[in-house]
Amino acid sequence: MSSVAGSPHCELRGPQGSGSPQRKRLQRLISVSGCGPNRSNDLLLLPAEEAAGSGEERSLSRHLVFFHGDIQNFQEEMLLQPEAAQWLPWSLEQVALILARRFPHRNIWVVRASRMYLHKFSCYQNFVESSPFGAPEHSAHGGALLQLRTLLTNAMERAKLPEPLRPAGGADSIPPGFSLILVGFSKGCVVLNQVAYELAAARADPKMSAFVDRISDMFWLDGGHPGGSETWVTDRKVLMELAACGVSIHAHVTPYEVLDPMRAWVGREYRHFIRTLEELGACPSNKLHFEEEPPSIENHFRVLLEF
């Protein structure tokens, strides 16, 4: 994975040959500083569309953050890798556009994993302790929420967004109307899992509680990683905190992940995740997509269009 360390400005870049105004508005922010040394991430930003009319709700402080899966990268990086080139329709740029169509009045942020092992295995080491292949080791104090908040603060400043987050503090550091949706796809769900593990400590921290309270929705999209467990959160204490925090929980899966007989634990953990949250009164929305079709990586990616 290549990046331009310390890039002082936003780089405007969209898919080649595109004249789409939305694509021209894609901003690439390289090496945005996180919450500690060597914890920078590259981000894409697609700013929110203007509201169609005065009666339509719009806020400059409505955001969505997306964490991608394996193979997915900036499109020019994918073109250099034979295994990745065939999945160009799911590059980070294209996913930003897909999300913008679904959530047109939110600023779309795509966080690129800090490392791509062997050019294909996404590793979110800056958010959760991970193996080289990206299998997580979750803990209650992993720093994912502080990393997310710091990245957004620094990225908003660099992009010169109005109504930005200010450095971590109390409620006065959160702009009016600020709200946040978190979306994890495939390997990217490890970040959402880590956020769940950190909720109890963050909600008790005066410098983090106001930020956490503004997370409105969390979407798990066909989560998966190379570890042999903890693909979905199964710790009841963690799920109790998730159920109690008021976040709307959404889980969308495909047979590629939850019906694979070679990784039967994924489906068991998914069902446990949903059943436990229902028992705790969280009422998660959940759907198995493409149930009548054979499991395929194509449908695994297509959940990004269908959720």
TrEMBL record:
Q: Which superkingdom does the taxonomy of this entry point to?
A: Eukaryota
Any one of the GO CC terms: mitochondrion
- Residues covered by region (Disordered): 1-24
The protein, known as: Chromosome 2 open reading frame 69
Query: What is the species listed in this Swiss-Prot or TrEMBL entry?
Result: Cyprinodon variegatus (Sheepshead minnow)
